[in-house]
Amino acid sequence: MAKMEVKTSLLDDMIGVGDMVLLEPLNEDSFINNLKKRFDHNEVYTYIGSVVISINPYRSLPIYNPEKVEEYRNRNFYELSPHIFALADEAYRSLRDQDKDQCILITGESGAGKTEASKLVMSYVAAVCGKGAEVNQVKEQLLQSNPVLEAFGNAKTVRNDNSSRFGKYMDIEFDFKGDPLGGVISNYLLEKSRVVKQPRGERNFHIFYQILSGASEEFLCKLKLERDFSRYNYLGLDSARVNGVDDASNFRTVRNAMQIVGFMDHETQSVFEVVAAVLKLGNIEFKPESRANGLDESKIKDKNELKEICELTGIDQSVLERAFSFRTVEAKQEKVSTTLNVAQAYYARDALAKNLYSRLFSWLVTRINESIKAQTKVRKKVMGVLDIYGFEIFENADNSFEQFIINYCNEKLQQIFIELTLKEEQEEYIREGIEWTHIEYFNNAIICDLIENNQTGILAMLDEECLRPGTVTDDTFLEKLNQVCATHQHFESRMSKCSRFLNDTSLPHSCFRIQHYAGKVMYQVEGFVDKNNDLLYRDLSQAMWKANHSLIKALFPEGNPAKINLKRPPTAGSQFKASVATLMKNLQTKNPNYIRCIKPNDKKAAHIFNEALVCHQIRYLGLLENVRVRRAGYAFRQPYEPCLERYKMLCKQTWPHWRGPARAGVEVLFNELGIPEDEFSFGRSKIFIRNPRTLFKLEDLRKQRLEDLATLIEKIYRGWKCRTRFLLMKKCQIVIASWYRRYAQQKKYQKIKSSAITVQSYIRGWKARKVLRELKHLKRCNEAATVIAAYWHGTQARRELKRLKEEARRKHAVAVIWAYWLGLKVRREYRKFFRANAGRKIYEFTLQRLMQKYFLEMKNKMPSLSPIDKNWPARPYLFLDSTHKELKRIFHLWRCKKYRDQFTDQQKLIYEEKLEASELFKDKKALYPASVGQPFQGAYLEISENPKYKKLKDAVDEKIIIAEVVNKINRANGKAASRIFLLTKNNVLLADQKSGTIKSEVPLGDVTKVSMSSQNDGFFAVHLKEGSEAASKGDFLLSSDHLIEMATKLYRTTLSQTKQKLNIEISDEFLVQFKQDKVCVKFIQGSQKNGNIPTCKRKNNRLLEVAVP
Ligand SMILES: Nc1ncnc2c1ncn2[C@@H]1O[C@H](COP(=O)(O)OP(=O)(O)O)[C@@H](O)[C@H]1O
Ligand SMILES: [Mg+2]
């Protein structure tokens, strides 16, 4: 939401009156009371028109924060309560928008807050003007020049802990957009006497204390300084420390500021070296020394300090020493050297210190200017801020040349204030076309004239005295003054011929008194001539120029012997006069903005408002006159637009809107309100109100009207609120009602709907049932009809069937009867042709035919001639069953015979053997089936061929039936050993496999039995006849791969030789005679882990176990 523009005025919530012009009644008391009232309420700013009166609060108020800056930014001067920011904003905007160069003139006594005010103005302008890296750097440099100059140019005085001891005018330059470009600082007459001597309760310039407190040990050592203030004669011991001032931290701030402003490190270093040198100069002391020629001479007491200064500044010690002892005067091309007495030596020392310091200060200003000067050549807008030392009066005639100069400067400022304020006021009336009558006010031009008049002015006379040949003293100067100025209204002196002050004991003889605009000031004439001369012996400036220190050298250009200038340099007074004149000229070209600072008390204390003190300041500042001048014409003025805006509610025609020019609106308004004609005047752009009372009346009316309006607004608002609420409630009610109605209707509808559905469903049910009933009836009728029809058809069909059956039976009977009849007829007819046994013959014939057919068919269906072919055709007739079987048997026998007939004798033998084997082992030994396919070879070992077995062959002369390698099982452990097994017609032989040596020979007659298992192994035992020769060694337990063949052949050979059948025992457990013992050989089902080979193991003495896989 856009922020509502609130038009405010300084008249809102005003404490007292914000603008003195509105003060009623106007007199000194009311003026001061108003200030006091405002001061007590923390309102330290009050206006007189566009002039800001500022009362030093002596404590920080929360009215300078960024929020305040924002508040005052771009607001009209009279829009908010009085503030220095309003003035700064007005000046800045006028500069930026109307292209008017500005100056801000800040005046007031020492300690009234001028310097603070100038800083506030600068910081405000810095805050509101353009932003950006470059602009910010410029701003920062401009702002940071302050701490540097304050450190070197400010000091604690009795009036102000941070009193500016120089005048400062700073031009801030802006570009057309209002962005700062840079600045130029002018400085005015530093109070250099402070360097060597300070009044009671005051301090030297801050920098000296800062350097001693804040510099590091190392840095101090470099500068040959000690931290102790009391070591330095130039630092008055009095109040060396200031409450609330931290010199050490300020030193850091200053160094930092110097860096920001752009001082190079070596420059900073040089600056501090000069400061140190000045401080140490104070410690040089002299003692008198009388010379023979009666001349007084002085001598440096302790040269150590001098030596250190010279080391620090690079000055030849002897040169400086000489400069402190002699003075060379050049007259008419002749150089005359005179010695200096102790007083002169001290004078020279102090002069050097003062000059060094003040020149250093000027150099600093120049150096800062170099840094902050605008970098472009484009046309600049300028805002000047003048912060000059305030009017200063010491008691007890302690006022000296410096105060005279300071007060002169203030006098000039007052002058310009009077001139510009009145001029501006007058010009405004002329601009606005208002009639203007001149107003009397005190014009201090006369005082200015007393001081600066070129012939009879005090400064002119001082110069004259200084230049005059002969003895010149302060007294001669005073005498002269007495002569020339005696008649001047503002000059007072006891010596003057004018008898007015002859008896005034308050005025010492060595003093003169000036009635300044701000009060009477008594000046002690002592030191005027000297200070005006500002004399530095040439020997010293030359010594300085010779320094091996670029800064010091640069500070004393006149010390260069090549540039000796015999002309006297301008006096301090004339220099100052000239620079003030330039300043005034400069100020006159700019639009002035005044800040008049007032000191509320002498104690630098917050909350204390010393009415007498303030009254004094008001008087000499001529503030009351200021108000009067402003009110003489018209107390209050305001452009038409804001005026109309503020008061338009007071008249029906202008409220709430006036359509037309603002001026006409204001005219209507004022007419309507019946304000007397002479109370106001219409300018070109502003309305001028003569008497504050009128304004206040307007304000009262406005306030009253505002209350009425507020009531009205409240009334309308309340009405509106109630109405809105009512409307809202009505709307709500309608919404609720509509929703409820809808809901009720919905409910009702649903009820009707469900009833309708129920009714409907009943009717539908009833209808359906009716239809169903009809349909069922119909169906039953149909079914009944069908049943009846079916029954009827059944009856008919059965009747028909019965009829047909009857008919068929009849027909069959007819046929049978007919056949019988025919048969009978035939038999009767053919009986005579048939024999008696013809039936049998037909039967046999038929049988014969069948048999014939059977055999013919069999011929074609014959199976193959293979004896193992099991096929045989099926029998065709049951009665041939036995025949058919017989025929099959015959055929099989026949084809077997046929098969046998093909065999040779040898084949026959083989088959005989195989047959024998079959008879012996078929279905008895598991090994048998595998042997069927293997032909029996008998001689597996070719004994006759192998020469190894020649001996064996020779030993056996009979025909060998079996020659084979067998394993003989060792009876002791069951292990096998290879043997050659030989079977001849009569014997069984076992021979060594390797050598062929015969191990045993058993005649077949001694073999009683052969035992073997029923399993798939090749073990067998050959049992021998007990008592026979061969049996002595025991039975043989052998194993062979051809067990079946060997057993068969052994059987057959034994049968043919002995005509006895060999006993072949097939059992899984049998006894074998081993020598004396009988051992049981037992066959068990073994594991497959040894492959398919049976293993034999001796289990114990009586058991040999053979594991067959
Ligand atoms: N606006 C202010 N707010 C708070 N303190 C202020 C203000 N103006 C001045 N002072 C106090 O008064 C002292 C003196 O002010 P200063 O500006 O140095 O006086 P002048 O320059 O007129 O001699 C400051 O050091 C500060 O303590
Ligand atoms: Mg100051």
Explain what the structure shows.
It is a single chain. This protein has 1109 residues and is an alpha+beta fold. Helices cover 49% and strands 16% of the residues. It contains 32 helices and 31 strands. Helix 3 crosses helix 4, helix 7 crosses helix 9 and helix 10 (265-281) runs antiparallel to helix 11. The model is unreliable at 1-6 (pLDDT under 50). The structure holds adenosine-5'-diphosphate and magnesium ion. Magnesium ion binds at residues 114-115, 163-164, 387.
Beta content: 15-25%
Largest sheet: 8 strands, mixed
Q: What are the bound molecules?
A: adenosine-5'-diphosphate, magnesium ion
The rounded distance between the terminal residues' Cα atoms is: 109 Å
Q: What structural category characterises the helix and strand content?
A: alpha+beta
The Rg value, from CA coordinates, equals: 79 Å
Please count the helical segments. 32
Average per-residue pLDDT, rounded, comes to 87
- Beta-strand segment tally: 31
Strand order of the largest sheet: 23-22-21-20-26-25-24-27
Stretches where pLDDT is under 50 for at least 5 consecutive residues are: 1-6
* Structural shape: elongated
Share of helical residues: 40-55%
What labels would you give this structure?
single chain, 1109 residues, alpha+beta, 8-stranded mixed beta sheet, 31 strands, binds adenosine-5'-diphosphate
Short recap of the structure:
The protein has 1109 residues and is α+β, with helices and mostly antiparallel strands. 49% of the residues lie in helices and 16% in strands.
